[in-house]
Design brief:
The protein is 63% helix and 5% strand. The protein has 169 residues and is mostly helical. The longest helix is centred in the N-terminal third of the chain and has 36 residues, at 15-50. The radius of gyration is 35 Å and the shape is flat.
Length: 169
């Protein structure tokens, strides 16, 4: 590979040399993949043979977290609640009382007077945008904002407006 790189830096490579270089690159990637797979399998064998040296540590961390996240006692109406079942009942009743539906008189829209649009105003809502309106909207956007999944940002659209204007419109 280094011979081909040196030769390519000095001049052009022939078609055969480029094909040979691609073959060598493919072989290198294949060997790297095989080596990675072999190393992973070897590590699994060592783990099975010697067991995981850190498993005691990780189990202690998990146990500590479980103890830390547990609710041992709870204050409910100025009294201390302990044990699993009373705590569970206190939590359940708190949320049941909190989310119970109550009949609240809410204002309605029946007696409100809404302003109606005229026929001309209504048609103005569905008329096509003009080129100037679209260009103004695009110019108001920041350059590095992307309008979609294609990665074309507003800076690109602004720079090449005359080229992309037809596609956008």
């Amino acid at each position: 590979m280094s011979d081909f790189d040196a030769k390519g830096a000095d001049g052009e490579l022939s078609v055969e040399e480029i094909d040979e270089m691609r073959g060598i690159t493919h072989d290198i990637h294949s060997l790297s993949h095989v080596n990675t797979s072999f190393s992973w399998k070897q590590s699994r064998l060592l783990w099975l043979k010697d067991e995981d040296a850190n498993s005691k540590y990780f189990h202690s961390v998990l146990s500590s977290r479980r103890r830390h996240n547990a609710i041992v006692s709870l204050m409910v109406n100025d009294s201390l609640v302990e044990e699993v079942q009373p705590i569970r009942q206190a939590v359940f009743s708190h949320f049941r009382d909190h989310f119970v539906s109550s009949n609240i008189s809410r204002p309605g829209v029946e007696n409100l007077a809404f302003k109606n649009l005229s026929y001309v105003e209504g048609n103005g809502l569905i008329k096509p945008f003009s080129v100037d309106e679209v260009k103004t909207a695009i110019c108001d956007c920041e350059n590095d904002k992307s309008p979609g999944p294609y990665g074309v940002h507003f800076g690109f659209i602004k720079e090449f407006w005359e080229v992309v204007k037809g596609d956008i419109m």
